[in-house]
């Protein structure tokens, strides 16, 4: 599943379509089967003749703006992604749901194999901000300066105290943009064992963790994300963050720091990887 850094890489890669005049936003036949693409084709016709003026990211969501009140909220879901179409009549990827055609190439298509993605019109920007997961979203882990004081306030909340830190980090109400990969990597960088209860973390460890999250997410964007099975940027680029992962996906491999075997535990049905020697 694309995490905050991958969504940010997609956003940057889509910069080439900003300012281009839209001919039409076209829902494929396939998209009509799924509720998350519930707007009708006629509702998308209102965007013809407009430009995409900006694409913003909030957590793992992208918001398309058009210089008109209506905006479109997009979520990549488990496996959704955009592809730039640089040739005329280029064959669409399978599972294509929405294409945006411009007066000049490239066009762009959203495809989504597992159908957890979303591409939905909202009447204005404010109503997107009121959309439940966005309204409750925590700190953006990719802010240029990580707000450590706010992070401490949030992680000190009582409802996290008796939960394992490896589970808590996936809560987007704490830090938005962390998913399963960068959860494990942030804890490894902060030398914190994922099975520790939040209440047992010292102030120093909480600070260290906040900065480790920020550093890990930024480093992932610089590496253009992690490419495991499906993630590519819309221009076809592959991420390289997997090359510096310390623990994620490395069960039974040797830790680079101490040589111990990396372990895997399951927390809230998700895998967490860690080094039992380096992470206390
Ligand atoms: Zn180690």
Report on this structure.
- The chain contains eight helices and twelve strands.
- With 280 residues, the chain is of the alpha+beta class.
- The chain folds into two domains: 4-135, MutM-like, N-terminal (N-terminal domain of MutM-like DNA repair proteins, Alpha-Beta Barrel), CATH 3.20.190.10; 139-274, Helicase, Ruva Protein, domain 3 (Orthogonal Bundle), CATH 1.10.8.
- The longest helix has 20 residues, at 203-222.
- The model has no long low-confidence stretch (mean pLDDT 92).
- Zinc ion binds next to loops.
CATH architecture of the largest domain: Orthogonal Bundle
Quote the average pLDDT.
92
- Total count of helical runs of at least 4 residues: 8
Which outline best applies? elongated
Which bin fits the share of residues in helices? 10-25%
Secondary structure elements and their pairing?
Layout: H1 4-13, E1 22-27, H2 41-44, E2 54-58, E3 61-65, E4 71-75, E5 80-85, E6 96-102, E7 107-112, E8 118-122, H3 125-129, H4 132-135, E9 139-140, H5 148-155, H6 165-168, E10 175-176, H7 180-189, H8 203-222, E11 263-267, E12 270-274
Parallel strand pairs: 9-10
Antiparallel strand pairs: 1-6, 2-3, 3-4, 4-8, 5-7, 6-7, 11-12
Residues 255, 257-258, 260, 275, 277-278 line the site of zinc ion.
């Amino acid at each position: 599943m694309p995490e905050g850094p991958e969504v940010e890489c997609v956003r940057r890669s889509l910069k080439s379509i900003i300012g281009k005049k839209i001919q039409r936003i076209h829902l494929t036949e396939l998209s009509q089967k799924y509720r998350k693409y519930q707007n009708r084709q006629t509702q998308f016709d209102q965007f013809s003749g407009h430009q995409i003026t900006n694409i913003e990211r909030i957590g793992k969501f992208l918001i398309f703006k058009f210089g008109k009140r209506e905006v479109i909220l997009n979520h990549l879901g488990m496996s959704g992604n955009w592809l730039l179409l640089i040739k005329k009549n280029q064959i669409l990827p399978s599972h294509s749901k929405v294409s945006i055609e411009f007066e000049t190439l490239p066009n762009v298509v959203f495809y989504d194999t597992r159908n957890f993605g979303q591409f939905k019109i909202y009447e204005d920007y404010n109503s997107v901000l009121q959309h439940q997961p966005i309204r409750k979203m925590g700190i953006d882990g990719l802010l240029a300066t990580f707000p450590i004081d706010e992070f401490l306030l949030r992680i000190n909340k009582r409802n996290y105290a008796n939960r394992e830190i490896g589970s808590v980090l996936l809560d987007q109400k704490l830090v938005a943009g962390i998913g399963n990969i960068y959860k494990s990597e942030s804890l490894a960088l902060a030398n914190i064992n994922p099975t520790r209860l939040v209440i047992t973390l010292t102030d120093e460890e909480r600070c260290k963790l906040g900065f480790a999250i920020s550093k890990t997410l930024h480093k992932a964007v610089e590496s253009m994300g992690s490419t495991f099975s499906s993630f590519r940027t819309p221009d076809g680029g592959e991420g390289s963050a997997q090359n510096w992962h310390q623990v994620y996906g490395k069960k039974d491999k040797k830790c680079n720091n101490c040589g111990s075997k990396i372990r895997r535990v399951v927390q809230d049905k998700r895998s967490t990887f860690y080094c039992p020697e380096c992470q206390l």
